[in-house]
Write a structure and sequence with these properties.
2 copies of one chain form a homodimer. By secondary structure, chain A is mostly helical. The first copy, chain A, has 2 domains: about 10-50, Homeodomain-like (Arc Repressor Mutant, subunit A); about 55-195, Tetracycline Repressor, domain 2. Helix content of chain A is about 65%, strand content about 0%. The first copy, chain A, is built from 8 helices and no strands. Chain A has helices at about 10-25, 35-40, 55-75, 85-100, 100-110, 115-145, 150-165, 180-195. In chain A, helix 4 packs antiparallel against helix 6 (about 115-145) and helix 7 runs antiparallel to helix 8. Chain A is elongated. At the A-B interface, helix 7 and helix 8 of A face helix 7 and helix 8 of B. Chain A binds a DNA duplex through loops.
Chain lengths: ~200, ~200
DNA sequence: GTCTATAGTGTGATAGAC
DNA sequence: GTCTATCACACTATAGAC
């Protein structure tokens, strides 16, 4: 018999985040009501406000947590110094990390416009930090002559789109393993920066 | 002195489409109300229902019109037979067409989940048709030995993400011309399918 | 910490006058 | 074809009991 009242702060908090993440990813921030989230968690709508001051902050915290965890994860791995090896490392890291968190990645791209101006600026700064990682690698590759990068900003945005696009269609349960995907994407990334000029 | 009543079917219809397109792209389908659209058009909310049976159909018609125009535009240009030349042609076409219609492209990617099941299936079929164009080119390139394409589906999805990602940051008014962009993206696309196996 | 109840506002869509 | 007025319902967020 289910309890109708009681204190569950330790477990309800994470459940609110998880429910909001899943529903925002599936239906979009604006299309999801606080009542839907509460229903998924198993509480009444009013109880959600013990865990977030409002719906906007709930979204913001999901994005901030994701971006900070992403940056921290990169910081914690060992990065090769050689630019090509570093680019391969980045490619494989990006694919592994992002394909494992489809909902977080999805809302991080789709719901930016639903952030308030202040919150948007914070998330954008974190995102810029991630892009900078790739740009530094491309810069080193360009300077060493190991890569052909006519414009670092263009190449970095193109490569991130290439890699993140994987989330649009890849499902782990499909016919291809993560290692297969990493291998094929690395072939394409390496080719994209190795191209020499010819018509 | 503005008229408060009258018949404007010829001009109001397109204005409704244009206002909905702009607002959906900026704020998202679920976050935009019929009253907002009416306000942008300069009519009252009730008048919109002379031009669409409901909000859902308004979104669907925007996406359908865009996808059909895209396919028709490709059909109307001259396509080289040589696979590499065809891939270059596709790359430049995709960039030119998409960078000229940022709002249409944006909602075509972001608002798919707000379509009803029936409408989604129709849009998805049109999208599949566009992907098929690229897959056919890659298939010919693979068979002729001119391209290294381990998995046609993987490569086509990756290249479309690479190219469409341009819309995330490119603004015609920026420091780079469309021709510059087309040149750099073609270098990357060609490299991505030309890579030979090496570690 | 969760509940019930509710304030105050906004929503998509329709009816009928002009 | 557009207007005004409205129905019936959903929304975020808060107040106060337990």
């Amino acid at each position: 018999m289910a309890r109708k009242q009681g204190s569950h702060s330790d477990i309800t908090g994470p459940k609110v985040q998880a429910a909001a993440l899943r529903l925002f990813a599936q239906h979009g921030f604006a299309a999801v009501s606080m009542r839907q989230i509460a229903s998924e968690v198993g509480v009444q709508a009013g109880a959600l406000y013990n865990y977030t001051p409002d719906k906007q902050t709930l979204l913001f915290e999901l994005l901030r947590t994701h971006m900070e965890a992403l940056l921290k994860a990169w910081d914690s791995i060992e990065r090769p110094i050689d630019p090509l090896a570093a680019l391969k490392c980045f490619t494989e890291f990006h694919i592994a990390y992002h394909s494992d968190r489809p909902d977080q990645v999805f809302i991080s791209y789709m719901e930016l416009r639903n952030l308030s101006a202040e919150n948007f600026a914070q998330i954008q700064a974190l995102r810029r930090g991630y892009e900078q990682i790739l740009e530094d690698i491309l810069h080193a590759g360009h300077d060493s002559g190991l890569m052909n990068v006519p414009d670092i900003r263009v190449t970095s945005m193109a490569l991130i789109a290439l890699l993140t696009g994987l989330n649009n269609w890849f499902r782990e349960s499909g016919r291809l393993s993560l290692a297969d995907i990493q291998g094929q994407y690395w072939l394409m990334v390496r080719g994209a920066v190795a191209a020499v000029d010819q018509t």
